[in-house]
């Protein structure tokens, strides 16, 4: 009868020799192994802090040429990866892959707390903060905290009075892109609101509601949940 410990030792020896033969280049700092010397050299820069590849436009440095090439597309505006479904272009191939989940309806990143799915891991991380109430981004002006860095950046614009989003139709400016989108609907809206009393037409429902006061003589308050109007 064969010794079972012998077969186990043989298996361990086989895996060890396979590992060292297939990946003979090993990092002295952390033990990570590679099949060739080039990726090991790039990896070791993580430990040494060396970043020999720098951007000519902004000076940002990188450990290898590949991330520098991707970064430079920010300055050049180059987006070589395009979606076959809608034609949208991307600077990074992984961003295209994440985008394609939208068309397929696939949401591979799922929240363990509530089961909600997301197309990208970054969106999942932001969502998970809503469960833990983690708001790591704080405004230096007023102390208000936020779950996302983008929300903080938009908030800071309020303090600075910056309105970076401009309407191409009329030139009106807004602090948030979402406010600009709402405003743009006033230029392209096909739905009109007509007064039943005098026939006057308005582009926005709220303006019609305010106009109705001239006929009723009462304050007319629209309900946020339905189309009913309340007269106090």
TrEMBL record:
Its main location: nucleus. GO terms for molecular function: DNA-binding transcription factor activity, RNA polymerase II-specific; RNA polymerase II cis-regulatory region sequence-specific DNA binding; zinc ion binding. Coiled coil: none annotated. Residues 25-52, 53-80, 81-108, 109-136, 137-164, 165-192, 193-220 form the C2H2-type domain. GO terms for cellular component: chromatin; PcG protein complex; transcription regulator complex. It is found in: Nucleus. InterPro entries: Znf_C2H2_sf (IPR036236), Znf_C2H2_type (IPR013087). PROSITE patterns: ZINC_FINGER_C2H2_1, ZINC_FINGER_C2H2_2. Keywords: DNA-binding, Metal-binding, Nucleus, Repeat, Transcription, Transcription regulation, Zinc, Zinc-finger. PANTHER family: TRANSCRIPTIONAL REPRESSOR PROTEIN YY, ZINC FINGER PROTEIN 143. Belongs to the krueppel C2H2-type zinc-finger protein family. This is C2H2-type domain-containing protein. It comes from Gouania willdenowi.
């Amino acid at each position: 009868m064969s010794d079972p410990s012998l077969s186990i030792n043989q298996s361990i020896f086989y895996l060890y020799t396979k590992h060292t033969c297939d990946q003979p280049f090993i990092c002295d700092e952390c033990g990570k192994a590679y099949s060739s010397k080039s990726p090991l050299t790039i990896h070791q820069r993580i430990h040494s802090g060396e970043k020999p590849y720098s951007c000519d436009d902004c000076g940002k440095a990188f450990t290898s040429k590949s991330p520098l090439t991707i970064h430079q597309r920010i300055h050049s505006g180059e987006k070589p990866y395009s979606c076959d479904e809608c034609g949208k272009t991307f600077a990074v191939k992984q961003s295209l892959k994440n985008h394609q989940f939208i068309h397929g309806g696939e949401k591979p990143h799922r929240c363990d707390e509530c089961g909600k799915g997301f197309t990208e891991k970054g969106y999942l991380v932001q969502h998970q903060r809503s469960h833990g109430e983690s708001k790591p981004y704080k405004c230096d002006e007023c102390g208000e905290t936020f779950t996302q860095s983008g929300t903080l950046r938009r908030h800071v614009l309020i303090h600075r009075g910056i309105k970076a989003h401009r309407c191409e139709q009329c030139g009106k400016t807004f602090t948030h892109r979402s406010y600009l989108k709402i405003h743009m609907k006033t230029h392209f809206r096909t739905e009109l609101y007509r007064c039943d009393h005098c026939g006057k037409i308005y582009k926005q429902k709220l303006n019609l509601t305010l106009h109705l006061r001239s006929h009723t003589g009462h304050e007319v308050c629209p309900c946020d949940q339905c189309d009913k109007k309340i007269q106090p």
